[in-house]
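$ run holo --ligand "adenosine-5'-triphosphate" --emit tokens
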Amino acid sequence: MRANQLIALLQEHNLFLSTTLPSDDVDFASLAYDSRKASANGLFVCKGFNFSVDYLQSAIANGATCYLAEKDYHVDVPVILVNDVRKALSLAAQLYFGFPQNDLFVIGYTGTKGKTTSTYLTTNILSHAFPQRVAMFSTINHIIGPKPEDQFKAHLTTAESFDLFHEMRQAVDNGDKVLVMEVASQAYLLDRVYGLTFDVGIFLNISPDHIGVNEHPNFANYLFCKMQLMINSRNCIIDADMDHFDEVYAAAKVSTAPERIFTYGFNQPDATLSITSSTATLTDSEFGLTVHGADQLQALATTYHVSVPGDFNQSNATAAVLASHLAGAAVSDLQYGLAHTTIPGRMESITTKHHGTIYIDYAHDWGSMNALLSFLHTQFPDHHITAVLGSTGDKGEDRREGFAKALNDYADTAFLTTDDPGHEDPIAIAKEIDSQIDHDKVKTSIIPQREDAIQHAITSATNDDLVVLAGKGEDAYQKINGVDTPYASDPVVAEDVIAGLADEQ
Ligand SMILES: CC(=O)N[C@H]1[C@@H](OP(=O)(O)OP(=O)(O)OC[C@H]2O[C@@H](n3ccc(=O)[nH]c3=O)[C@H](O)[C@@H]2O)O[C@H](CO)[C@@H](O)[C@@H]1O[C@H](C)C(=O)N[C@@H](C)C(=O)N[C@H](CCC(=O)O)C(=O)O
Ligand SMILES: Nc1ncnc2c1ncn2[C@@H]1O[C@H](COP(=O)(O)OP(=O)(O)OP(=O)(O)O)[C@@H](O)[C@H]1O
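-- output --
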């Protein structure tokens, strides 16, 4: 990477302040923001809440010959000073990796809920349309090519800019043409996607979440960060049913012509796509779409079968239909992809012989718990709903009140247990939820050991019961006192319980 090219790019974005480089006619052999990955003749980027000058010294010891920072650390190598190092890192990464986004059709999903689900649905549709040409960056998994080593677990919902553009480069080099990715609000808060224009940006929904220390200072900031996806997308797709729709639509209109803004919603005749749910079972559903005011989308007006249950998943599926169609998928690809997708830990179900249907679902805040329980309650009013859940420690304290509210509205029985307690006492968290439960409506028990809570819930369930194991999806750990403590995972525990029940054999 040429220093003069980087400086020109930083100047273009009004980020460059000054440099102590004797000449900008130099080449950096590498770029790193982690001292442990710095190498000979490299440029090291100093950023982060926990940054220490010791990291810069280690990077120099590992071969860094220049650093990029917001302040002069007065070390032995020259500095490029900028007024915003996170934005500078994103631009430097794009330059270093040769702007890989220019060779990809990039689809980005934001929303409080449904990002992972919609990302999987879209990836499956597009993989049917363009086999081995689709990259995916989800909270669960990343796929950057066809080989087994091109699939790996995610560390964050949206990776740090350097890692993001690195993986995009690898995906392009592996022949990928499309990228489907999740865009967390944190990605805009910390400029992980600064300078990236999405071909399609989708805004699924918003409800208060991720507000607190290390996250957003308030809801307005959370919404503002999420809306940046609309401002940075060539085509915008927005759920017309969501709260704050008008503000999000207005944000989209700032940089996108109205004919490139698409909306969808349930029985919304004015939306581009109006959804009519035709059948919903415990394990899947079918819906129809009608098209309004967009002749080029008329082919989408047909029926679709979705292999994941829940009306909210019909909504996610419609977003996936629109985004995939804009990327070039045919209706047959849309129908195939939606009918053949499972998402790890999202509405996975186990049908038992005598203990009802068990759902393993990642719902871990009011928005998702409310969507999940209200769907089950509305569709299957005669079924008894049992929920097994806890609430995370060290963050999202308001989730506890939200869970109690959703349980009061829709559940019959709740087993309150452990879910990533962090440095807090899981029993105290459970009691906090319990204190806000209306015990005339919901019968509760506090069972700290999650395995035991699942055991009690399934064993006591009868034929028509719906047992929801909420919050952990397929997580195979409990976050306790800063350590990821191994945990078998909800599906494994549930299968073990069922295998041990005499009447299930
Ligand atoms: C608050 C927050 O978001 N922090 C993220 C941010 O950290 P940071 O830039 O402040 O860096 P830091 O961790 O303080 O470390 C300081 C710097 O020293 C460097 N370092 C560190 C050690 C060393 O030996 N040498 C060295 O050079 C590090 O590489 C880093 O650049 O950037 C890091 C990557 O560069 C992330 O790992 C880190 O995410 C933390 C772990 C995190 O948990 N973030 C959560 C809140 C998050 O981002 N969540 C969203 C999901 C939200 C949703 O569900 O929608 C996500 O996208 O995952
Ligand atoms: N469109 C939706 N509206 C409301 N709830 C939803 C929606 N889609 C999914 N959910 C619920 O939210 C849970 C999490 O879904 P998913 O993992 O797809 O969302 P996400 O946005 O990636 O979440 P997170 O940011 O917490 O990782 C699901 O298990 C389901 O209970």
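-- notes --
The CA atoms of residues 92 and 179 lie 21 Å apart.
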